[in-house]
Amino acid sequence: MSSADAQQIPRVGGDLDAYEFYVETVLCFHCDGCGTSLECPVSDEDTEAPSGAWMRHHARRAHGLGWYVYPLSSEGALTVFALCPTCAEARGLTIPNATENV
Predict the structure, then answer these.
(1) How far lies 55's CA from each of 9, 21, 42, 51, 68, in Å?
(2) Nearest Cα to 58, choosing from 3, 5, 16, 13?
(3) Confidence band (pLDDT; 50, 70, 90) for 47?
(4) φ and ψ at 5, to 5 degrees?
(5) pTM for this structure?
(6) pLDDT at position 7, please?
(7) Rounded to whole angstroms, how far apart are CA atoms 82 and 43?
(8) What's the 3-state SS for the chain?
(9) Which pLDDT band, with edges at 50, 70 and 90, does 99 fall under?
(10) Where are the domains of the chain?
């Protein structure tokens, strides 16, 4: 995302569907602001990874920790863009109901 695009970041992050789609695609959460990552390990028991219970668990975990994921488009398309809690807060972005999913 270019610096011009960065000015157009929606103030409110995506819903859990966006987080699930993001982690299913990227397999971790990577901050486009500072480069930090929230790893999403796959164990031998995670037979559904990167979908199913594994995807839902890590989506809820990142959301609950305050990670920002770009909302899905009106057509349901994913913009691969995320921010760690520190970078999201510094930009004044909102993660709806983040503490409800920890």
Answers:
(1) 24, 8, 10, 5, 16
(2) 16
(3) confident
(4) -65, -35
(5) 0.84
(6) 59
(7) 24
(8) CCHHHHCCCCCECCCHHHHHHHHHHHCEEECCCCCCEEECCCCCCCCCCCCHHHHHHHHHHHHHHCCEECCCCCCCCCCCCEECHHHHHHCCCECCCHHHHC
(9) low
(10) 10-101
